[in-house]
Design goal:
The longest helix is centred in the first third of the chain and has 15 residues. The protein has one domain. It contains 4 helices and 7 strands, in the order ααβββββαββα. The protein has a 7-stranded antiparallel β-sheet, with helices on both faces. The chain starts with 5 loop residues before the first helix and ends in a 9-residue tail after the last helix. With 203 residues, it is of the alpha+beta class.
Length: 203
């Protein structure tokens, strides 16, 4: 894996916490489908097995981020329970936070991961949960998901239902930033491009 700027290395632990602890949600806007590089959803698979079989997280993420200046996605295999595909880039926005004082620009990272777990069985914090949809697909958003348990501000995650027993996670954040609203705008746009590439499964 290529060496990442200090900002992205600082952001990685937060994204890991979000991916492994997706039990709190807050605020997702419903939206109309937006054009993406993917023209159609994956064929309808059987719910009896792994609905993500044959799908490549990095291929889907790269398609969703095409033309946005991100490095090609790479699998993060540091975690046993989940291995997301991660893509990152530096923005043109000057970085002023303490955690990125040695880098000139703000870094942004997006992760995509698939999970074989019932969407309806997630232990969601009702005070922080807002249910909605992404292109008509049932979803929830987590804003500042690690703040209550770990005291970490910022970051955003959208969880999209894929049938009765699977879901897809899109996680994002600006390194050194604490603006979850800004993070969620980024993640929402990516999720709208990822969603058409996910399997259409009933249940």
């Amino acid at each position: 894996m290529v060496n990442r700027p200090k900002q992205l290395r600082a952001l990685a632990p937060l994204l890991a916490l979000l991916l492994m602890g997706c039990d709190e949600t807050d605020g997702i806007p419903s939206g109309n489908p937006t054009p993406s590089a993917a023209q159609s959803a994956s064929p309808n698979p059987s719910e009896g097995g792994d609905v993500f079989a044959g799908l490549d997280e990095c291929e889907i993420l790269d398609t969703a981020l095409e033309g946005e200046g991100f490095e090609p996605g790479k699998i993060n295999d540091k975690f046993k329970s989940i291995q997301p595909c991660a893509a990152d880039k530096l923005t043109n926005e000057p970085c002023t936070a303490d955690s990125c004082r040695y880098d000139r620009m703000v870094a942004v990272q997006i992760d995509l991961a698939f999970q074989q777990r019932a969407f309806d069985q997630m232990d969601l914090d009702t005070e922080r949960t807002h249910k909605g949809d992404v292109n008509g697909r049932e979803a929830v958003m987590i804003k500042d998901p690690a703040e209550r348990e770990f005291g970490i501000e910022g970051g955003c995650m959208i969880i999209m239902r894929v049938g009765a027993s699977h879901y897809a996670l899109v996680v994002g954040g600006l390194a050194g930033g604490r603006d979850a609203d800004k993070d969620c705008k980024i993640v929402d746009q990516v999720a709208k491009r990822v969603e058409p590439q996910l399997p259409q499964v009933g249940g």
